[in-house]
Structure formats: structure tokens, C-alpha cells
Design brief:
Helix 7 packs across helix 11. The protein contains eleven helices and nine strands. The protein starts with a helix and ends in a 9-residue tail after the last helix. Bound molecules: nicotinamide-adenine-dinucleotide.
Length: 286
């Protein structure tokens, strides 16, 4: 417990002293908002019992082949997630990070593999890299056009028993063919990366312009199975003067110099925030 308290002190001091902030986020960051991560088959099937009954794994379901083989099931999966992400409110941790980021003279960026759009819903704009795309944007399955368009108020009617979406399924405004989410799936050669590439260009320019400014990297809920976010945060933290705070209740460890917080994201960020604002009284008790 003393270790956790001193790690929280060190994490708060790192963020307070930094000139700029990089926020990394994986599926675990949404858990405190009530969203499922896809931790192993059991976690995935608990979130999606109909797919458990069919014995379909996350890596199998998040595959563009379903849009060819069984579009109603493909849109059942993505439509269910779109509906869920829309009706779920981002937790307090998002707002804490926004406040910290806004106060930094060198600014802040978010690098996330989440496709749920929750950073934007929490007020983040123009400073988010969605490295696996966004479920709130669509593209043509046939790639008749390189366009990506906003899903707008698209609603899918998904049967909770069969997990199939009722027609009409989303279609391409150009050719009328089937549309799909602009999300990077497994074995996905058809994903149109243009939107993500623009975000990445801005991110790289921001990192390069930091110079000798001190960077705090706060990574929340990024798993090691698809390690893109962990890798990006470690890379950024290897810059001179940078430091990584890794928040993850099960996989908090990192390279030498990492401040590891084995806590849920909302609790860890609130505890750090209390220390930074001087209102920290009681010690963390979990
Ligand atoms: N909300 C979303 O957009 C969403 C949800 C599920 C999966 N995905 C996709 O799934 C892929 C796998 O992502 P991943 O590796 O981040 O997921 P993962 O499910 O493999 O890992 C989640 C991580 O979060 C940690 N975690 C669990 N509860 C937490 C909490 N309360 N606070 C902080 N951390 C917590 C777990 O220990 C784990 O390390 C990604 O490509 C992602 O795009 C996205």
C-alpha cells in the first residue's frame, strides 16, 4: 500500500511538472464508463452472449469477411457496439485528463485504439489519434470511392437473441452497395486509413515540435494482446525528459522508469488529481 501511495505521488508530480501531456488509452479505459473490454474469450462472450453461443472469438468477429458472408451478423456486432457507445457517458477520468491537458503550455494529444468516440464525446476535439479508426464513420465495402463519411444519426435495429441487424443495412451514398464501419479489423486490407493518417500527421508534428519540453505520458487501460497503444506510449516516453505513467489493474508493468499504477483508470486519475489540487487526505485503500 505504501508502494501504491508513493507511486501515486510520483505520478501526480510527473504530470504536474510536465510541459506537455500525451494520453494513451485502450479498451480498459472505457471499463469505468461501463463498457466491456475484450479480455480473452470469456470477457468477450460475457459482453456478447449470442457470439458465445455461436463460439465466435473477437478476432474472428472483428473481420471484414463477415460483411461479405453474413452482412446482417456483421452489422449486428458493429451496430450493437455503435448503439452501446452512443448511449454510454464517458466517466470522470476523461474530464480530469481534459483539464490537465488544457493547462499544459506545450498542449496535449490522445493516442487511442478505442473506436467508441468517447474522447470526442467528452469534449476532446482535433487532438485525438484513433489508430484503429472510428465506429462513428463509415466507408464503402467495395471501395468504390476512397470517401469516409460520418455515420450521423444512423441507427441499427439489432436482435439481442440472434445478434442480427434488421434491414435496411447501411449503404454507400455513391454506389448503393453495402457500407461498413471505418474501423481497422483483423486481416483487413480494405480499411481506408486516410482519416487516421491525417490524425497521425498532426500527432507526429506535435511530438517533433516538443523539443526539450518535459512530456508526461499517461496510459490507461491498454492491453498487451494488441500492443499498439502500449508501444506508442513507450516510444514517446523514451524521448529526453519524458516519463510514462501506466495505469492498468492487471498489466501495469513497463520499461525501466515507468510509474506503474495497478488501479482502475478512474480511481487512479482521481487519486492523482486530488494530490495535484492539494485536496488529498485519505490514502488509497484498494
Ligand atoms: N471501447 C472501444 O472502442 C473498444 C472496446 C473493446 C475493444 N476495442 C478494440 O479491441 C482491441 C484490443 O484493445 P485493448 O488491448 O485495449 O483491450 P484488451 O481488452 O486486450 O485490454 C484491456 C486492458 O485494460 C485493462 N483494464 C481493465 N479494466 C480496467 C480499468 N478499469 N482501468 C484501466 N485498465 C483496465 C486490462 O487489464 C487490460 O490490460 C483494440 O483494437 C480496440 O480497438 C475497442
Amino acid at each position: 500500500m505504501a508502494d501504491l501511495d508513493s507511486a501515486l505521488d510520483a505520478a501526480a508530480a510527473t504530470v504536474a511538472a510536465a510541459d506537455a501531456l500525451l494520453i494513451g488509452a485502450g479498451a480498459g479505459f472505457g471499463v469505468d464508463s461501463g463498457l466491456p473490454d475484450f479480455r480473452g474469450d470469456q470477457g468477450f462472450w460475457k459482453a456478447y452472449p449470442p457470439l458465445g453461443r455461436l463460439g465466435i472469438h473477437f478476432e474472428e468477429m472483428a473481420n471484414p469477411l463477415w460483411f461479405e458472408r453474413d452482412p446482417a451478423l456483421a452489422w449486428g456486432f458493429y451496430g450493437h457496439r455503435l448503439n452501446l457507445y452512443r448511449r454510454t457517458r464517458p466517466h470522470e477520468g476523461f474530464h480530469i485528463l481534459w483539464r490537465w491537458g488544457k493547462a499544459k503550455p506545450g498542449g496535449f494529444r490522445v493516442f487511442t485504439s478505442n473506436v467508441d468516440g468517447h474522447f470526442q464525446a467528452a469534449g476532446f476535439r482535433g487532438n485525438v489519434v484513433e489508430c484503429h479508426g472510428s465506429i462513428h464513420h463509415l466507408q464503402c465495402c467495395g471501395c468504390c470511392t476512397p470517401a469516409i463519411w460520418n455515420a450521423g444519426d444512423l441507427e441499427l435495429d439489432v436482435d439481442e437473441e440472434t445478434f442480427r441487424a434488421a434491414p435496411p443495412l447501411p449503404s454507400c451514398p455513391q454506389c448503393g452497395g453495402l457500407a461498413r464501419p471505418n474501423v481497422l479489423m483483423f486481416g483487413d486490407w480494405g480499411w481506408i486509413p486516410a482519416r487516421t493518417h491525417e490524425q497521425e500527421d498532426d500527432f507526429r508534428a506535435w511530438l517533433a515540435a516538443l523539443g526539450r519540453r518535459r512530456l508526461a505520458v499517461v496510459e490507461c487501460g491498454a492491453g498487451s494482446a494488441v500492443p499498439t497503444v502500449r508501444w506508442q506510449c513507450e516510444q514517446a516516453a523514451s524521448l529526453p525528459g519524458a516519463r510514462l505513467v501506466r495505469i492498468n489493474p492487471r498489466e501495469p508493468h513497463g520499461p525501466a522508469g515507468t510509474i506503474s499504477l495497478a488501479l482502475g483508470a478512474r480511481d487512479a486519475l482521481s487519486a492523482m488529481d486530488a494530490r495535484m489540487s492539494g485536496s488529498h487526505g485519505s490514502r488509497v485503500s484498494s
